[in-house]
Fold:
Amino acid sequence: MASWLKLDAEAPDAEGLAALRRHLDAGGVAALPTDTLYGLAANALDPAAVARVFALKGRDFHKPLPVVVRDRAQAAELAARLPPRFAALAEAFWPGPLTLVLPAGAHLPAALTAGSGGVGVRQPRSPLLAALLAQTGYPLTATSANRSGGSDCRTAAEVAEQLGADAALLIVDGGASPLALPSTLVDLAGAQPRLLREGALARAALAPFL
Structure:
C-alpha cells in the first residue's frame, strides 16, 4: 500500500516538506495537489524516477511527461533554445496553468520527452510546489495522478482509489485541488505556436499571442 503524508498545500510546514523532499531525492514518486489537478511528482532529471512514473500510470512510453519548474531560468536549462514567443507567454501567464512545449535539451532523460523532441514546462502557482521546487534544485514531473485512461483526481482519496496499491508511492494529502481542469498546452517547438489543449486557461486569453 502507498504511504501517506498530510501537508497544507497553501502553507506547507518545514518538517513535511523535508520528508517529501527526502522521498523525491531518493528517486521516489509522490502524488500531490498542484494548482490544477493532483499530479505525480518525481525528479524529472532522474531516468529511474521517470520510469517509475510511467510504471505507476501504466503510461505508453511514446507519450512525453510534462514538467514543473521553479522559474523561467530553470525552464531555459531544460530547453535546447527558447522560442521567440516564450518570454511573452511566460511573462503573461506564469506562474499559472499554462504548459509551454519547448525544444528539449539533449541532456534530458529519453523517456521524459518520449522521442518527441519537445519538453512541456510550466511554472506552478501552487505554494506547495513552489516551496518544493525552491528546495529540490531539480524540476519535477507533473503528469496527472491517475492510471492512464483513468479519471482525473482532485483529492488524495481519489488518487488512492486508482494508485493506492503501489507501495512505492507517497500520497500527499493537501486537500482538494483548486481547479478541475488540466493546464492549457501550447506547442512552441515548431515553426508556429500551436494550441494543443485548451484547459484551465481559456483559448481567448491566448489569442493575442497565437
In short: Helices lie at 14-25, 47-57, 72-78, 86-93, 110-113, 127-136, 156-163, 203-206. The two ends are 45 Å apart (CA to CA).
